[in-house]
Specification:
With about 525 residues, this protein is of the alpha/beta class. The chain has 16 helices and 15 strands. Helix content is about 50%, strand content about 15%. Helix 6 packs across helix 16.
């Protein structure tokens, strides 16, 4: 009977269970925000990893990751097919390739977990696997220009653990979630000693949450208030790039700007998707009017390079304050082709595309407030936001999420922006062409929100802040060092234990042979 059902049990453990758990973990992210589902899924994948070696554990991690990223990032297909115009086959291949690539990182964690499962359950579940997960997540956010979307820590944005964000950032929160899952797993599968340790940790959790300083502890408010207006023009991606609609689009944003008295007016990413030189004459009246009214207008458009062969994706300050920010972290294959120049020429040529701005750029100011500006998915990278801190007193992100309309990507990107505000202890202004635009408090709370899919003018008053959170001061460096050290020591220790076991086995074999001869 046992042998007869063995293939079914293997199918369940190697395919069905990790796939179900991968889909379950996605429910913790926006727009669902069921973070207990994420913890439950992590407990399940720990159980799957503990019982097998590195090969099968890596496969289970891969299936888990494929289901997770497949359910959480299916909107890539919508963007590539519905809005970018790619055919079904190309859009499907692009989405599958991304999911397969991202699934390799949970597979890496699984391989490390399987290679070290001879350690005691307490050490394995509370140190080794969380460290391996954290390292894999950091690698995912760095390799091949990085794609840290759906990092585990984002599910805590509305949970009691979110107070750790100014201390350790989103990846530190991912580590904390894995430790929490390991603690609960020990209650079920650990030894008596491991269960006692887990009970002590659970009993100490309220004290830990209570002892973590509030976000207000790390930064201080400045004695001024900045009136801000966010303009959400709601231009469909298909229309945004039509030359015949450039003039009506500019009129729309100009009229919306003139109807507000806010000191800072923020347009979305590439609200005018043309070179600034082409609309210089059209922007002149707006610039003059904003100067007269004492307004600073942040307009998203292209800015030409000196040789006029390439373009920067830029934010141009008009009116009372002047300045420019050029996007530094470009989207792979969307704005830049990573790799050798011949690949770039093969895919799309090397003329006229966006190029990255300088790593160090002067901050734009509005009414004496220093602004930390980011464009599009730059806010996915905490280290990108840290570049302008602690000098920046207010964060601004302009984006165009219309490519993902009707999908969870809108809520996920807003969740990411909230984490950046919480990590840095700064209010954040988020202007999205078709939504979701928002004003976010320094503690990650949503202060004002403009729903997606409609034209809106969002008004509010924000208090800039100064100072540096521990995350701003140190970034992810402590996590890199700590997680790499844990994984290296765990693998070395695992190798030493395996060597010692083989050596002892050989000794036993020799003794058995000697006894047989005697």
């Amino acid at each position: 009977m046992t042998t007869r059902f063995a293939p079914m049990r293997r199918l369940f453990a190697d395919l069905l269970a990790p796939a179900a758990l991968g889909a379950l973990v996605t429910l913790g992210f926006a727009p669902w925000n069921i973070y207990p589902a994420t913890i439950a899924a992590l407990i399940g994948v720990l159980a799957l990893w503990r019982s097998v070696g590195p090969g099968r554990a890596a496969w289970r991690g891969f299936v888990f990751g494929a289901a997770h990223f497949g359910t959480g990032l299916y909107w890539v297909y919508v963007a590539v097919h519905d809005h970018a115009g790619a055919n079904v086959v190309l859009a499907g291949l692009a989405t599958v390739a991304l999911v397969v690539y991202l699934a390799c990182f949970p597979a890496l964690t699984g391989a490390i977990a399987g290679a070290t499962n001879q350690f005691a359950p307490t050490l394995w579940a509370l140190v080794v696997v969380p460290g391996a997960w954290c390292l894999a997540e950091l690698l995912r956010g760095w390799a091949f220009t990085g794609f840290p979307w759906l990092s585990l820590g984002y599910v805590t944005i509305a949970a009691p653990l979110n107070g750790l964000a100014p201390l350790v950032g989103v990846h530190g929160l991912s580590l904390a979630l894995m430790i929490a899952a390991g603690t609960l797993w020990l209650l079920y599968a650990g030894t008596l000693w491991a269960r006692l340790v887990a009970l002590v940790l659970i009993a100490l959790l309220p004290l830990l949450v209570w002892s973590v300083p509030s976000p207000a502890h790390w930064t201080r408010p400045l004695h001024k208030t900045l009136q801000v207006a966010i303009l959400q023009g709601d231009i469909a991606p298909a229309n945004q790039w039509r030359p015949a609609l450039f003039a009506p689009t500019l009129r729309r944003y100009r009229d919306m700007t003139q109807r507000t008295d806010a000191a800072l007016v923020v347009w979305p990413e590439l609200a005018m998707p043309v070179s600034a030189t082409r609309v210089d004459g059209d922007l002149a009246p707006l610039n003059a009017e904003a100067t007269r009214r004492g307004q600073t207008v942040l307009a998203g458009l292209f800015w030409p390079t000196r040789d006029h062969r390439h373009l920067y994706n830029s934010v141009l300050a008009l009116g009372a304050d002047r300045g420019r920010y050029d996007k530094r972290h470009l989207v792979p294959f969307g704005e830049i082709v990573p790799g050798p120049s011949w690949l770039e020429r093969l895919i799309g040529g090397d003329d006229g595309h966006a190029v990255a701005g300088a790593a160090a750029q002067p901050l734009i100011h509005a009414q004496g407030t220093a602004l930390g500006v980011s464009i599009g998915f730059e806010d996915v990278f905490g280290d990108e936001i840290r570049r302008d801190l602690p000098a920046a007193q207010l964060l601004v992100n302009i984006t165009n999420d219309g490519w993902f309309a009707g999908t969870p990507a809108l809520a996920q990107h807003l969740e990411i922006a909230r984490m950046r505000a919480l990590e840095s202890g700064r209010p954040l202004v988020r202007a999205a062409n078709a939504g979701i635009s928002a004003m976010i408090g320094f503690d990650g709370r949503l202060l004002h929100v403009a729903p997606a899919g409609q034209r809106a003018r969002l008004l509010g008053a924000l208090v800039p802040r100064a100072g540096a959170t521990p995350y701003v001061a140190y970034g992810n460096r402590p996590l890199w060092w700590a997680s790499a050290a844990v994984v290296l020591l765990a693998l070395l220790g695992s190798g030493a234990l395996a060597w010692q076991t083989r050596r002892q086995r050989r000794r036993d074999d020799r003794r058995r042979t000697l006894r047989e001869r005697i």
